[in-house]
Amino acid sequence: MAQNLFSKKDLHRLILPLILEQFLAMTIGACDTVMVSSVGEAGVSGVSLIDQLAQLFIQLFAAFATGGAVVSSQYLGHKSDEEARNAAKQLLNISVFVAALIIAVCLPFRRFLLNWIYGNAGEEVMRNALVYFVWVLLSFPFLAIYNSCAALYRSMGNSKVSLKVSLVMNFVNIAGNAVLIYGAKIGVAGAGIATFASRIFAAVIMVYLLARPSAKNRGRIYLEKLWKVEINFSMIRKILKVAVPSGIENSVFHFGKILVYSFMSGFGLSAIAANAISNTIASFSNIPSQAIGLSCVTVIGQCIGAGEKEQAKSYGKKLMKEAYLGMLCVASFIFIFVPFLVLPFNLSDEARSLAVGVIRTCMAANIFFWPMSFTLPNILRASGDAKYTMIISNISMWLFRVLFSFLISKYLLFKFPENTHFALYGVWLGMYIDWIFRGAMFFVRCRRGKWLDKKVI
To answer: With contact defined as beta carbons under 8 Å apart, do 274 and 129 qualify?
Structure first.
């Protein structure tokens, strides 16, 4: 039997920094929300709406990073380090190009875009959203670079570097928020500028670390001749084989969420604010499972590249058990202490009470369904089985999350017209049904073992 590619110590060395990094990443959005809440619920709602729209584009960068990480991991498992380095450079080329394209299209038409999606949000909310959106758009190239470099480090089994850089990014963001929101008192513009500056710092540091001369001695992947644009279409096709299905899956998923937000914007300011806070707090419960999902790309990718199918199955089971254990611990904590967790947010009593109820239903659903729905598909993607996850995710998104959320919430609005709070619960119920369906389909796919026959390189 072949020697295990990853020891227990290797897995912990990979996963634990990822958990901390994911926690820090979540705090950027949470800190923006908490600090912006000082300017009122319109500010919170404006930032929340843009964060949801931004996720549509950010998931594209995440898809490219996943594609690059899968290809690099499989090459590393195959002991083809030079090809892994080639894949790294092509990943950066694609990510920066797409980010620049998004800015060129969205910046001139930002008002039209936001009015089309969030036309019912109200003038004050829209005004804040427009200001914040400009800075978020300008930060995209730097975020794309950071995500790509972080994925490359993870493909080498090194997640400590991205953790340290994330610490710097969070410090710059929080300090910028404090100075610009509380000191200069420029509201959501301050939050946007701070986010922009933090992403520039992170991108510059990451590129420096991978391109410095000593990087050749520190890792199997490093960047050379960044000034020279080299396009390798064969390698790009390999990356896109994973990135395109993942990008379509992620983008359609978040576009569906935006559609849900668009019809939910008519539920009233308290419901919008409660939903924003619920999303912020609930996202923290996903951190362990998300981190383990990222580690799956490295672990399973290297196993598949090395031709070790049995190890891929064994590590997959082990990682899923840890994902469920982590979710149980964190979600149970949030379920119990959520009345205290919502206190830092400047919400009305009505919005605060609604947020507590929504978050508790989410924690109960998370414990049973979230890892199967969102951690497990990363095991499939790491082998190259990205097309299947795309098809299932798109069907589930439109049939259950979008359609059922709309129908259930409209029914509750009709049944209880004096209380729009019930309609917000209907939106979240549609989301839970989506999790159940996609989780069941991914579980069946994994059990049948077809994903073990997939390979990108």
So the answer is: no
What pLDDT does residue 275 have?
Answer: 86
Pick from 48, 24, 23, 21: which is nearest to 34 by CA? 48
- Percent of the chain at pLDDT > 90 equals 52
- Cα–Cα dist 47/49, whole Å: 6
User: Do residues 180 and 32 touch, judged by C-beta distance below 8 A?
Assistant: no
Q: 402: which residues sit within 8 A by CB, 6+ positions away?
A: 256, 259, 260, 430
The answer to whether 136 and 50 have CB atoms below 8 angstroms apart is yes
Query: What Rg do the C-alpha atoms of the chain give, in angstroms?
Result: 21
CA 275, 276, 279, 281 torsion: positive or negative?
negative
Are 322 and 368 within 8 A, CB to CB?
no
Single-letter amino acid code for the residue at 373: S
Q: What's at 88, amino acid-wise?
A: A
Q: What is the DSSP track for 87-141?
A: HHHHHHHHHHHHHHHHHHHHTTTHHHHHHHHHTTS-HHHHHHHHHHHHHHHHHHH
CA 15 to CA 160: how far, in whole Å? 10
CA neighbor of 293 nearest in space, from 328, 326, 319, 325: 319
CA–CA gap between residue 239 and residue 301 (Å, rounded): 13
Cα–Cα dist 72/61, whole Å: 16
Residue 3 gets which letter from DSSP? P
pLDDT tens digits, one per residue of 324-370: 999 999 999 999 999 999 988 877 888 899 999 999 999 999 999 99
DSSP state of 38: G
- Which residues lie below 8 Å from residue 393, measured CB to CB, with a gap of 6+? 249, 252, 253, 377, 438
Using CB atoms within 10 A of its CB, is residue 317 exposed (0-12), middle (13-18) or buried (19+)? exposed
- State pLDDT tens for residues 34-88: 777 777 778 778 887 888 788 888 888 989 999 999 999 999 999 998 999 999 9
What is the per-residue pLDDT across 181-191, written as a single tens digit (0 to 9) for each?
888 888 889 98
In the chain, what is the straight-line distance between the N-terminal and C-terminal CA atoms, in Å?
A: 24
Q: What's the rounded Cα separation, in Å, for the pair 72 and 17?
A: 20
How far is residue 98 CA from its own chain's centroid?
17
pLDDT category of residue 31 using cuts at 50, 70 and 90: low
pLDDT 10s digits, 110-123? 999 888 888 777 78
